[in-house]
Amino acid sequence: MKKTFLLILALSLGFSVSAQNIPNGNVESWNSFNDVLGNSYDDLGPDSDRSKNFLRTLNAILEAPLTQQSAFKVTPNQGSYSNTSIVVVTGMVAGSILVPGYLGTGDVDISAATIYLGRPFTGRPTAMKGVYRYEPVNGDSAAFYCSFSKYDALTQSSSIIAEGKLVVPNAQATWTPFQVPVNFTTSAAPDSVNIIIASSADYDLVNLQSSQGQVNSALYLDDISFEFPASLDSYSQVNALVYPNPSSDEVRVQLEQAQDKLRLRLYTLSGQLLLEIRGKGNEIAAKVSDFPCGNYVLMVQTDFKLLHRSVISVQH
Question: Which residues contact 169 (CB under 8 A, 6 or more apart)?
Answer without folding.
Answer: 139, 141
